[in-house]
Each structure stands twice: as structure tokens, then as C-alpha cells.
Amino acid sequence: ARDRSERAFGVGFVKLMNADGTTLQDGKHNLIVYKGDNKKMEDAKSYLTLPCTKTEMEEKETPSGKNLHPLANFTPTKDCTKDSFQIATVICSTKLTQNVDLLGLLNWRSNAHNIAHNLRKLMEVEGGEIVKFLPDTLDALFNIMMEMSENETYDFLVFDALVFIISLIGDIKFQHFNTVLETYIYKHFSATLAY
Prior knowledge:
single chain, mainly alpha, Immunoglobulin-like, 2 domains, 2 strands, small GTPase binding, C2_DOCK-type_domain, guanyl-nucleotide exchange factor activity
């Protein structure tokens, strides 16, 4: 606002959430810098449908090498811009996950037909991701056990998942989460059917 002669020369952006509900993966991301009409760059609707990273652009290109998202006022091909912008991200959240299998379990009610699959896949999720969501994961497991009590298959899968989580907490790498587990048991556990 101070210097009206300064004009935007490019725009780059990143999508924090993926289409499957997980968050952007930790690590480095090479953002595409789009150039074009200054007025168009101020309107997010004009570029948010475009690929935001070089990787995404390569995935969306057709075999002929033509981009699937042509936009008259931007130059979104890797050949016509030498500019790029690299960022590094690290997610710090106890509510948003980068793991689609853990997300499937935490949102089990909206994906009831996938409960058995998600319970099996939980035992393949990296331990560090599970312990971040320990109370929510335990809530999901006990709620499945209580609300799906007519299906014996779920009981065994939930039991296996609980044994997996407890043995995970017993690992020296995650032993400091033992207090989180104890607090959950003594203050939050309320699944009478599972008791």
C-alpha cells in the first residue's frame, strides 16, 4: 500500500490439505511460481485449481506433454519459467494426520464399511503418528467395540489393535507416553461394554 509502483511479479501457493483428508506431508516442496496479469494474480480463484508443486504438475501432465490446466494469463508450464520457490513443512497437530489409514480409523463412523480394513491397517501405521493421537485412537477403538458389539470380527480386531498400541507404548522409544495412557485409563476411559 505504501509503494504503488511495486507490483507482484509472480505467485506461488501450496495446498495444506490433500483430497483424501490428510495433511501435506512433512518435507521439502518445490512450488511453481506463476507469472502473469497482476489483477489476475490477486484473485485466488484464478490459480487455486492449478497444480501448486512441480511434482503435482508432472502428475497432471498428459502423455503429449501438454498441461491439463491451461490458463491464458499465467504461464504454468515447467519450460516457460525458470523460477521456483522451495519450502519445507513440518506439521505439529494432534487433530490432523498425514496418514490415511489412521484418518480412516479416527473417522470410522463416516466410513463404517471400511472398519475391518482400517483396524488391520492401524497396525502398520508408524508408532510416532499413533502416539500423537493416542486418546483419540483409543476412543475410536472402544467406540467401535461398544457400537459394533453384534459383530464378533470387530471385537478380535479391536483387541489386536489394543495389544499393538499397549506394546508400542512399552517400547523404550515411546515410554514417555505411558503417562498419557495411564491418564486415559484412569480419567477418560468410560466404555462400560469393553470394561
